[in-house]
Design goal:
homodimer, mainly alpha, Farnesyl Diphosphate Synthase, globular
Chain lengths: 326, 326
């Protein structure tokens, strides 16, 4: 975590404080909860959402409660990851055994619920009622979008529009909320807060697209999960959507994605073939162009913000996220 | 639901309103969420916790927000049931297929999360910050106790003390919260609110003990789940604890509970034998005596309350819960 933020003045120290709050809040008399959650917040995560919240707080007056709210967002994010790993049966997370792999599905579901409740506890204690409501709404939306995503598994006719709507709901909205909470609790003006919300949204869209690209083209050692993880679960993401569109337009290959997907289901071996076809098509490049588009939009919004250290940090973060390898 | 409350003046109508709020709040653009949750709130549940909240609101000034908060408690309760059914792999709930059996584990986990977030949304919108915090704390405690319960599975040396501590955390606290929220949001005095909290606690303890007895001695058609459900999951509850204590004291049977449990694990066939042994021992009677003790405590607290319709209803409900068959 620290190395990621080392050229962001003040942020590593602030995130240390956030990590302390997370440790305190997720502590429990129950040894399983304490151990299980301690392993999750051991400095392996980048704490992106808290970082974004703290940077945007710099557009107004940074307050004590910002640290708590940043902790709150990270705990919410972790709760969704724990539940995701249970339902996806992913054996690892950030190179470590997933919570359910260590403590069983039963405890993993409950630990996710515990974290969610601790996150709401912090929100009710420290944020304005409006922001507590906003937080609860974002969680509802994330769940709704994940359920929608489930019903879209293996649906290779997924439209671009539906894909973008989904990554907005399951990912970009949380980035947008981080910026909103950071700015609004720092008493930034309504206009400035709205502008920062848009920055968060665009960063979040680019972030998720890159995530989806890394599932096809990442270096497994850096990403710390196997390639094709989403694909094996039947998740149709942007690189594949773009590759399918290009294939439909050209139709000059013997082994085609459409051919593979014409079966009811594809197997684990197929996923290797699909990754190869997507890599060799222009799918990755086309997906990358979308990530660049959202990044450019974020940068445009950022450059219209008041000049200063927070603006510089936002710009640096946005550019760095576009070229990330993990 | 309506028939259960028919002799509680005003409560059936109030609960109709609560059901309407639940339907509205849990509605979603997402058809899976809408259908999945609609099936849960179809009038099959008794709405005990909302009922308790509405009765206790009668000790002060009943307000519009009471209906919303009652909905909130029921949604929280349902969220925990959905997650419980996923992790216990229970095929049915209230005689209907469980959510995970219809929509898969994936969607069931997410629907539980969705309901939790909707519950927090209502809490942040309608309750005092103090009560939103109390609600979040109760959820943390419930999760903590369920995790503790998991680590105690098949542990036949479970102490009475640990059992009571667990049912307090996983069950009685929610009844206590219902009374607390009902009274405090109705501006009842602090002393009266504390008294009602104790009433709720004692009702909740008796309720859970009866629940645990019904797993051994219930009529499956009335309970709408198979006998020995908890036992098969390795849950050691009061009837078994009492039966084990009596067996240890007498030791005059060839087939003993200790003998069965001396193995690392017991199988599904064993659970029939265990149920028989517990039924033939004084375990059920001893467990029932505890339920009666908590009921008597609740009644004592109730009779010290200001006389009137709310007090009469509390007394009637408490006595009815002791003799329930489902």
């Amino acid at each position: 975590m620290t190395s990621y933020w080392q050229d962001f003045p003040g942020i590593p120290e602030a995130l240390e404080r956030v990590s302390g709050i997370i440790r305190e809040t997720s502590a429990s008399d129950n040894p399983i909860i304490s151990q299980g959650l301690a392993g999750l917040f051991d400095g392996q995560g980048k704490l992106l959402r808290p970082g974004l919240l703290l940077i945007t707080a710099g557009f107004g007056k940074l307050q004590d409660k910002h640290y708590t709210l940043a902790a709150c967002l990270e705990m919410l994010h972790m709760a969704t990851l724990i539940h995701d790993d249970v339902i996806d049966e992913s054996p690892t997370r950030r190179g470590q055994p997933a919570v359910h792999a260590r403590y069983g599905n039963r405890n993993a579901v409950l630990m996710g619920d515990y974290l969610l409740s601790r996150c709401f506890l912090l929100a009710s204690e420290y944020t304005s009622a409006d922001n507590a409501v906003a937080l609860a709404r974002v969680i509802s939306t994330i769940c709704g979008m994940e359920i929608e995503q489930n019903s879209d598994r293996f649906r290779t006719n997924l439209s671009l529009r539906r894909y973008f709507r989904k990554i907005m709901g399951k990912s970009a909205m949380l980035f947008s909320l981080a910026c909103h909470v950071g700015a609004s609790e720092a008493k930034a003006s309504r206009a400035l807060t709205a502008q920062l919300r848009r920055v968060g949204y665009n960063i979040g869209m680019a972030f998720q697209i890159i995530d989806d690209i890394l599932d096809y083209a990442g270096n497994p050692a850096a990403v710390r999960k196997p390639l094709g993880n989403d694909l094996k679960e039947g998740l149709i993401t942007l690189p594949l959507i773009c590759a399918l569109r290009q294939e439909d337009a050209s139709q000059n290959s013997a082994v085609t994605l459409r051919g593979i997907f014409s079966a009811d289901h594809f197997s684990a071996e197929d996923s290797g073939t699909v990754i190869g076809l997507v890599r060799n098509s222009g799918g990755l490049k086309a997906a990358r162009a979308y990530a660049e588009k959202y990044t450019a939009r974020a940068i445009r919004e950022i450059l219209a913000l008041p000049a200063g250290n927070p603006r510089d940090m936002l710009e640096r973060l946005t550019r760095r996220l576009l070229v990330r390898e993990a």
